[in-house]
Design goal:
It contains 10 helices and 10 strands. A hairpin with a 4-residue loop joins strand 1 and strand 2. The protein has a 5-stranded mixed sheet with strand order 3-2-1-4-5, sandwiched between helices. Helix content is 42%, strand content 18%. It has 350 residues and is of the alpha/beta class.
């Protein structure tokens, strides 16, 4: 049973956690939302500097909260891809330093694999195979989890990710940043069927539509035109616009993921990423799962957004399988989820 200390600095949360297999011993997250709100989005240079300032206190807090000493830690893990390069480098430098100083094995972790493992934290008995719907500010993907470390991308967005669409629509409505939580709150007070919005389908060269891929640029443009039209009429029913937008996005995500699971003979769907916290999506997916006799698992809200507990959980599984990474490992801004095993060596002796 491996005890892993993990660091996550891929974007705008500085996070450190300690996990023993699938049990969270401590999870520290320092958010930068207030820092970036002025700019309406994450400023990479500011994010990197903030990570640099707060990383050491977060490590100390994680160790203290877990009630452990360094000799109790089996390995050090860190998010190495994908993400903002400057932000990733801060976490990488800290993790490698801890690995060398304390003579601990080192593991690099794929950020998206971490989001998959958020569901393992909520459901310790969960086992592959299953479908993971990963929805965040930067990613919208349907991932076939065949086994530990073995993934196949079955569907993805062709343009904006779902989280990006939420942020952009919130900006159109002057709601602030980040848009997801604000729209979710307002949508609960509005009429989800007040306005018809496009579902965004991807055409195939020989006719028809791609069954699993997503597109959210069209709905964003439709909301823009709707807002302009409503402004000419003198008043924008913000709650109704928010509810209609959220309803459409949730319906699309649910429809594509359920079809994907059924077509591939899978009886379980998990969901990860920041948009996994959205109440509309949770409601739609739960109802659809019950209708089609599928199991659906949602991570706790605290593990939907970026955190280090999910990174530690993924690292613990790899460590238990004998995987470690070289200290020569570098960060990458992008890396396909099916290339995860390239991060590891396979010669660790027990």
């Amino acid at each position: 049973m491996a005890t892993i200390l993990a660091i996550e600095t891929s974007c705008d949360e500085t996070a450190v956690a300690i996990v023993k297999n699938r049990q969270v011993l401590s999870s520290i997250v320092s958010s930068q939302i207030e820092l970036h709100q002025t700019y309406g989005g994450v400023v990479p240079e500011l994010a990197s500097r903030q990570h640099l300032e707060i990383i050491n206190p977060c490590i100390d807090r994680a160790i203290s909260a877990a009630g452990l000493q360094w000799q109790d830690i089996d390995a050090i893990a860190v998010t190495c891809t994908p993400g903002l390069v400057g932000a990733l480098l801060v976490g990488m430098a800290a993790a490698k330093t801890l690995s060398i100083i304390h003579n601990k094995p080192f593991l690099g972790v794929h950020h998206l694999e971490g989001h998959i493992y958020a569901s393992y934290l909520a459901q310790p008995e969960l086992q592959p195979p299953f479908l993971c719907l990963l929805v965040s500010g930067g990613h919208t993907s349907s991932i076939y989890v065949k086994d530990y470390g073995k993934y196949e991308l079955l569907g993805s967005t062709r343009d904006d990710a779902a989280g990006e669409a939420f942020d952009k629509v919130a900006r159109l409505l002057d709601l602030g940043y980040p848009g997801g939580p604000i729209i979710d709150r307002l949508a609960q007070q509005g009429n989800p069927k007040a306005f018809q919005l496009p579902e965004g389908r991807i055409s195939l060269p020989k006719g028809g539509y791609h069954p699993y891929d997503y597109s959210f640029s069209g709905i964003k443009t439709a909301v823009l035109r709707l807002v302009e039209q409503l402004q000419e009429q003198g008043e924008i029913p913000v709650n109704d616009v928010a509810a209609s937008f959220q309803h459409t996005v949730a319906k699309v995500l649910t429809k594509r993921s359920v079809k994907c699971a059924l077509d591939h003979g899978l009886d379980t769907i998990t969901i990860g990423g920041g948009v996994a916290a959205n109440s509309g999506l949770r409601k739609h997916l739960q109802q659809a799962a019950e209708k089609h006799n599928l199991k659906v698992y949602f991570p706790p809200l605290k593990f939907c957004t970026d955190n280090a507990a999910m990174i530690a959980c993924a690292a613990a599984q790899h460590f238990n399988l004998g995987h470690t990474s070289s200290l020569d490992l570098n960060v990458q801004s992008r890396m396909p989820i099916d290339k995860v095993m390239q991060l590891y060596e396979h010669n660790r002796m027990f």
